[in-house]
Design brief:
With 48 residues, the protein is α+β, with helices and mostly antiparallel strands. It has one domain (4-47). The protein has two helices and two strands, in the order ββαα. The chain has helices at residues 19-27, 30-41, and strands at residues 4-7, 10-13. It has a two-stranded antiparallel ribbon. Helix 1 (19-27) packs antiparallel against helix 2 (30-41). The relative contact order is 0.19. InterPro entries: FRG1. One of its GO terms (molecular function) is actin filament binding. Pfam families: FRG1.
Length: 48
Protein backbone atom coordinates (compact mmCIF):
# COMPACT_ATOMS: atom_id res chain seq x y z
CA UNK A 1 0.00 0.00 0.00
CA UNK A 2 2.90 2.35 0.47
CA UNK A 3 3.50 2.67 -3.24
CA UNK A 4 -0.08 2.47 -4.45
CA UNK A 5 -2.62 5.15 -5.19
CA UNK A 6 -6.30 4.68 -5.91
CA UNK A 7 -7.33 7.35 -8.37
CA UNK A 8 -9.92 7.49 -11.14
CA UNK A 9 -11.24 4.09 -10.00
CA UNK A 10 -7.93 2.51 -10.99
CA UNK A 11 -5.01 1.36 -8.90
CA UNK A 12 -1.82 3.21 -9.77
CA UNK A 13 1.46 1.60 -8.80
CA UNK A 14 4.81 3.35 -8.75
CA UNK A 15 6.84 2.02 -11.68
CA UNK A 16 10.19 3.49 -10.64
CA UNK A 17 13.21 1.26 -10.54
CA UNK A 18 13.73 -0.52 -7.23
CA UNK A 19 17.48 -0.38 -7.72
CA UNK A 20 17.38 3.20 -6.51
CA UNK A 21 15.98 2.00 -3.20
CA UNK A 22 18.75 -0.55 -2.80
CA UNK A 23 21.38 2.12 -3.49
CA UNK A 24 19.72 4.46 -1.01
CA UNK A 25 19.75 1.73 1.62
CA UNK A 26 23.49 1.29 1.18
CA UNK A 27 24.04 5.06 1.37
CA UNK A 28 21.83 5.38 4.45
CA UNK A 29 19.14 7.61 2.93
CA UNK A 30 16.44 4.98 2.47
CA UNK A 31 13.68 6.75 4.42
CA UNK A 32 14.26 10.03 2.60
CA UNK A 33 14.03 8.22 -0.74
CA UNK A 34 10.83 6.45 0.32
CA UNK A 35 9.25 9.77 1.29
CA UNK A 36 10.23 11.27 -2.06
CA UNK A 37 8.55 8.38 -3.86
CA UNK A 38 5.47 8.71 -1.69
CA UNK A 39 5.20 12.46 -2.28
CA UNK A 40 5.23 11.91 -6.04
CA UNK A 41 2.37 9.40 -5.83
CA UNK A 42 0.14 10.86 -3.13
CA UNK A 43 -1.00 14.27 -1.98
CA UNK A 44 -0.29 13.54 1.65
CA UNK A 45 0.44 16.22 4.23
CA UNK A 46 2.82 13.93 6.12
CA UNK A 47 5.25 13.43 3.26
CA UNK A 48 5.83 17.06 2.26
Amino acid sequence: RKFQKFQDKKLRINTEDRGKLEEAKVQGILHETLLDRRSKMKSDRYCK
